[in-house]
Amino acid sequence: MSVAKPLPHDSARLHVTGAARYVDDMPVPAGCLHLAFGLSEFACGDILSMDLEAVRAAPGVVMVLTAADLPFANDVSPSAHDEPLLAVDRVDYLGQPLFAVVATSHVAARRAARLGRIAHKARPALLTIEAALAANSRFEDGPRIYTMGDPAGAIDGADHQVTGRIDMGGQEHFYLEGQAALALPQEAGDMHVISSTQHPTEIQHKVAEALGVPMHGVRVETRRMGGGFGGKESQGNALAVACAVAARATGRACKMRYDRDDDMVITGKRHDFRIDYRAGFDAGGRIVGVEFVQYARCGWAQDLSLPVADRAMLHSDNAYRLPNVRIESHRLKTNTQSATAFRGFGGPQGMLGIERVMDHAARVLGLDGVEIRRRNYYDERVEGGSAPRPAAAPRDISVPKNEDLASRGAEVSEPGDAAAPEGAQVTPYGMEVRDFILHGMTRQLLESCDYAARRAAVDDWNARNATIKRGIAFSPVKFGISFTLTHLNQAGALVHVYQDGSVHLNHGGTEMGQGLFRKVAQVAAQRFGIAPEDVRITATDTAKVPNTSATAASSGSDLNGMAVQAACDIIRDRMAAHLAEQHQAAPGDVRFEGGRVYVGGAEYSFAEAAQMAYVGRVSLSATGFYKTPGLAWDRIEGRGRPFFYFAYGAAVSEVAVDTRTGENRILRADILHDAGASLNPAIDIGQVEGGYVQGAGWLTTEELVWDDAGRLRTHAPSTYKIPACSDRPDVFNVALWDGANPEATVYRSKAVGEPPFMLGISAFLALSDAVAACGPAYPALNAPATPEEIWRAIARARGEAR
Amino acid sequence: MKTSFTVNGTPCSLDLDPRVTLLDALRDHLDLTGSKKGCDHGQCGACTVLVDGRRINACLSLAVMHDGDQITTVEGLSENGRSPLQSAFVRHDGMQCGYCTPGQLCSATAVMSEIADGWPSHVSDTLAGPYAMTREELAERMSGNICRCSCYPGINAAILEIAEEDVGYAEAAE
């Protein structure tokens, strides 16, 4: 068995010797040029003139590109074609690329990029949610609204009402390897691009547009990224396109790597949100109705903001059955970096909204935080019982020219019909919840972490201590798995078996540390009954597997694992048929196990079997394809089945807060997470641990600050606090829930990239619990709960002004 | 400006602009790309290398300051890439994306010598020593090496396992 083994990451040996190559480590051809962008120093206004003489005259500068020098499309947007590579006439945020310097060295390019003199006429910059609302500056005509039942009536008639607001900040990805691309010009105008990207196909598409060539003229390769977290889904487009254009113009290899501060100033981050809520509860603590108004600060360009904001709406229920609900979502356009994908893709923000409601209501109703949540859980259901789905009528799909169909920002949908059966328990968007397992998971976690006794100990501590307050909190996660843009839920793979029995594996997913390559190789090894070392994992390459979706939405191993399985099975079946024929055996009786192939009493090594198949003129190469079944989603109506299944998790965090300063620590975290039948428990536990810490970082230490001019003031790790080794909880217990996915995923596993991120919400709620112990009022803690914010919230709890 | 130092046991002579950092000299002039450039500000630790056995952020140090020094990068931590610490990182899967790994390894190597040599840290109870590799000491001494994937449990487990063999180890008091 190769599947389900806790094998280390595929490149572990290379990483510990420094031999694992990232884009900036690749040997480059002689004469390689380096690029840097000249950036806007103002947030909003018209460009009157750009004096670039000093830039051109600077040492080492070979060429300076402006928008006017671009031969074809000046666009790096993944969606609305509203994101020029280089600014044209106007500037929409501070840090926007205005021109590109091509020079003989990285340093020469960066030095010269500072020398541009830009005359401009400033316009008032919209920097905040309030400012954007006042100016009605938004994407889409108005807010999206999903409604079920009669929330206003239900809330008005409820025994208890809670009303409030939570502000939550954005988050910088800080992938440790910054954005980077290398373009290598080929014969006949072709371009080979090596990019640190989660989405090679989109890079290919945007580079092809920029060079005026068909997609077959561009090949994009990605071996690995030094972290992605969503920040390399669309944000790498600019570098790859700039390098390709410069490489075409100069005929030389061109490389670009953002300096860290530039990276933070130029690229998009997690959307910061404000959520207003009004909810009604009955006397038993059950929610009868809730209304959310979500405001997302999307920045200057649309990017992936629509599906991000959609997903925030889709996770407004988290794990709770909401009988009457209204979710209104505003996608606000501001003069800041264009907010983009980040692990969870809006899900964390939506989920924090309902968790705030639960936290607030528990305080008002005097209920324990766990109790109120359990009373509102969806029911646990067994598999089956769904109604047959009628076939959907074909719909006309009109696709605007140049639409990047492989982007999550694409404005095209093919709604089918996936109505839930009558009487089923459904989400606010009408999807049946039939795989709910949080009752059992919660029970197990509370027992294993000794919640009841620790809850009492925390209360006891707080009764006896005035200065250091403790807090403990539980939070569950139910996260929908699939791209909400249904057609992206497809994947391809390419597998070769060579005559010596070694296997070459390729698929559309990219490796960014999440262990995808290892998991998929385990699947391939399992299908052929060989050792994982006998499977060679190769760089993602648009010339090997075309039309791939981004490695995103946690879907990497679900989609690519199945595609690889399909390809391997095709080859294995061909080998089996050939061997069976030679041995007068049935093909179904040929077994591939332990590196051996058993057929009709004979036994061969896998290599011998491959040789026999080759000599027998059997093709040992195959492509595999997979598409997720049963999905149908109408994002305008907010109805359908956007997700194949849900992944679950539960966490308990305990914290301590110094009430004099707001200083705080996470003392302990206990997590039980659902990875289905795990493909690799070691990798999955790593994802859960890392997700929790990163999620807690978002809600505690990681604070983005823009000044009144729209300048990002936190543009390096010196001012933007990323969790370090010392911020990890002192006691950190992580376990995987033992259960198979009821849906037919690859070996019944579940996606694991994003869901654990939201377990970090429990740390935020524990801080809220500690702060609430300081006074009678609900503290309404905002995120990130920095020491300053905690200090202010303590004053609110005490009813003091600060 | 001519500079000579030894990198991973090999003598190197370079003629460099005096503003070239040690990190750029290693990566761009000696093709030793194992040391990574994460922030170029000395804040992330991805560029950590050993100079005469002590760890430094190579991005904050000029190459010409190292004339005559013995420099060790991740490529030189062992002959075959299988030092006990390197193998422990693999065994405990102390990495996800791997970009911080070279710095973590160099840093951890130096931390073990610092403890063995009796250097106190910010969290040490005494300035007199000796010190053991407690969880608290480890967290403090490794806090300059950021892992954005937050793979700290794996990293710590690997270091603690080797420290136990090498320099003594004490379970932190709860």
The best one-word shape of chain B is globular
CATH fold name of the largest domain in chain B: DNA polymerase, domain 1
Count of helical regions of chain A: 19
Count the beta strands of chain A.
29
Biggest sheet descriptor of chain B: 5 strands, mixed
What is the topology, as strand order, of the major beta sheet of chain B?
A: 2-1-5-3-4
Average pLDDT over all residues of chain B: 93
Total number of domains of chain B? 2
Distance between the termini of chain B: 54 Å
Gyration radius of chain A (Cα, Å) is: 27 Å
Using the 3D structure, state the CATH architecture of the largest domain in chain B. Answer: Orthogonal Bundle
Task: Name the assembly state.
Answer: heterodimer
Task: Average the pLDDT over all residues of chain A and give the rounded result.
Answer: 95
Helix vs. strand class of chain A: alpha+beta
Radius of gyration of chain B: 16 Å
Which structural category fits the helices and strands of chain B? alpha+beta
Sheet bearing the most strands of chain A, described? 8 strands, mixed
Spans of chain B of 5+ residues with little confidence (pLDDT < 50)?
Answer: 168-174
CATH superfamily of the largest domain in chain B: [2Fe-2S]-binding domain
The arrangement of helices and strands of chain B along the chain is EEHEEEHHHH
Organism (chain B): Arenibacterium halophilum
Pfam families (chain B): Fer2 (PF00111), Fer2_2 (PF01799)
Domain 2Fe-2S ferredoxin-type (chain B): 1-77
Protein name (chain B): 2Fe-2S iron-sulfur cluster binding domain-containing protein
